[in-house]
Amino acid sequence: MPSVLTAQYGDDQRMADTGGRVLAGNAVETLPSGGVNGVPAERVRRAARGLRARLAKHRQVFLDVGAVAIAAFDVWFWFAPDAKSYNYVLSIIAVVAVAFRRRFPFLVVLLTVPGFLAGMAQLAAMIALGTLARQRLLSTQTYIAAGLVWLSRFFLWPPEDFVALPWTTHIHDAIYGCIVAGMPIAIGLLVHAREELSARIAELAVSRERERLLHAHAVRADERARLAREMHDVVSHQVSLIAMQAGALRVAVADPDAQQVAGTIRSLSTRTLDELRQLVSVLRTTSGDDSPQPRIEELPQLVAGAGIPASLTVQGPVGDLPAPISGAVYRTVQEALTNVRKHAGGATTAVHVQADPDELRVEIRNDAPARHECSSLPSGGHGLVGLRERAALLDGTFEAGPAEDGGFRVAVTFPLARQLDG
Known about the structure:
Layout: H1 4-9, E1 21-24, E2 27-30, E3 35-36, E4 39-40, H2 41-57, H3 59-77, H4 85-97, H5 105-117, H6 122-136, H7 140-154, H8 159-163, H9 167-252, H10 256-283, H11 299-304, E5 310-315, H12 323-343, E6 349-355, E7 359-366, H13 383-393, E8 397-402, E9 408-415, H14 417-421
Parallel strand pairs: 5-6
Antiparallel strand pairs: 1-2, 3-4, 6-7, 7-9, 8-9
Helix pairs in contact: 3-4, 3-6, 4-5, 5-6, 5-7, 6-7, 6-9, 7-9, 9-10, 12-13
């Protein structure tokens, strides 16, 4: 099942093999680990599953061959030199009919009964009766077939030999006939019950997996709701205060530069509040589909409203990029512009996007800060780390570091051929 990472970033990527569990999307995924004699465990499991699949595919063939062989051995074991030719013919017909017992169970019983009554195919009739009971359970056909098998064991062919037997032998043959007819039915019913039990266990396993997924989804939804409450109560309140203070400052001061700075702060605060509301709505969404991510087409608005002197250059077709790559480009440029505002005093910045048939390259480069006295805003140091992880999930490369002219450079490259093929 594809996880949220797969849905958001395209190809199924995995973290380092730790053998633990990762809460990704709506399910807890167990990562493969370990090995057997130097062979990866996943390869061993695939080989075992392939062997079991091949055996299961030919299982019925093996069972049919074994049933025919047992019936033939029974006829050969009870071979009588003084038997008539029709005894052999009926026995051979019964043995051959066993091979078709799955498709025509009742007809095969009718074909094996003469070989049992006037021949030597007792096990053939018992095997056919067991198959009929397994498929039809205690139906009318099963009762009729059981009566015929019982009669074949009770009655002795030819009839004159049957009449010459004492009554004690008849009672003994009647009891033994009940065993001969009842044992295949019992085995057939037992096999059917085992198959039903296996099917129920498989259904329970599927139901348990579904419940596990639902539980993981509920845990994820609760965590998202908690994060939404925290962001709304703390971050939204603080940003609203910033916007209000900036608006008041813009009205109170007479300096045009100060009014412009206050207006920029208010505009950025208002935009941050809008994005924060969208993010909170995403976190509060309990369905599997999240809101759409911003795309590369929105870069002009982002650069124009960055609050710093920035330019944007786009080369190549970018309109049909995969959504994960398009969203990653937007977030990369957004984080880079934020870092320029925070740490470079709003230095002049150039954003360059170039799309080729095989890859997409994005570079954000800012000049050296002109005002070294400008204090840097606090930073947790997680922005570039998040960009590097986002690029890695898309099989991209990420670079960030000081430039030769004293500025800073952020560059990321995303492969397009694999993403578009996938």
